């Protein structure tokens, strides 16, 4: 098994994001985070990870993590913080609250709160 120390769970979540992209990482960790899974180097559609994120992304993840048994981090707080950052970035790029709500499975009101909080913590409006 490839153990991931508790102190580096957020770091391993970032490795997963780097390997398969933000949206797929959110999907994977929401469904399988906290579980030890088998990650074959040549995943098939019936494999647990591949069924969650697709065979191509499962292959990319296996290449990044080396395959075998892998403890996927739950990383809930980290994922929520990253999601909120992504909402702010996409809003700055022109996506509407409705589009953001649909993309992230949120209500428009929650998207508004995320954007209002980001604006309050960065009153200059600089989102870079």
Task: Summarize the structure in words.
With 128 residues, the protein is mainly alpha-helical. It folds into two domains: 69 residues, no CATH class; 44 residues. Helix content is 62%, strand content 6%. The chain contains seven helices and two strands. The chain has a two-stranded antiparallel sheet. Helix 1 packs across helix 2, helix 5 crosses helix 7 and helix 6 crosses helix 7. It starts with 8 loop residues before the first helix and ends in a 7-residue tail after the last helix. The N terminus is likely disordered.
The counted number of beta strands is 2
Helix content: 55-70%
What is the averaged pLDDT score?
A: 87
Specify the number of helices: 7
End-to-end Cα distance, whole Å, is 38 Å
Question: How many domain units?
Answer: 2
Kindly name the structural category: mainly alpha
Radius of gyration: 16 Å
Shape summary? elongated
What is the strand arrangement across the widest sheet? 1-2
Main sheet makeup: 2 strands, antiparallel
List unreliable stretches of 5+ residues: 1-7
Q: Please write the string of helix (H) and strand (E) elements.
A: HHEHHEHHH
Q: What is the strand content?
A: 5-15%
Question: What's the structural blueprint in terms of helices and strands?
Answer:
Blueprint: H1 9-20, H2 22-32, E1 36-39, H3 48-53, H4 55-65, E2 68-71, H5 76-92, H6 97-104, H7 108-121
Antiparallel strand pairs: 1-2
């Amino acid at each position: 098994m490839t153990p991931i120390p508790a102190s580096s769970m957020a770091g391993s979540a970032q490795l997963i994001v780097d390997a398969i992209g933000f949206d797929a990482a959110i999907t994977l960790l929401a469904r399988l985070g906290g579980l030890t899974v088998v990650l074959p180097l040549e995943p098939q559609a019936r494999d647990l990870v591949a069924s969650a994120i697709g065979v191509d992304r499962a292959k990319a993840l296996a290449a990044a993590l080396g395959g075998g048994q892998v403890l996927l981090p739950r990383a809930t707080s980290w994922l929520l913080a990253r999601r909120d950052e992504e909402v702010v970035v996409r809003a700055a790029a022109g996506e509407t609250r409705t589009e953001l709500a649909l993309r992230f499975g949120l209500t428009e009101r929650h998207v508004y709160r995320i954007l209002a909080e980001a604006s309050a913590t960065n009153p200059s409006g600089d989102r870079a």
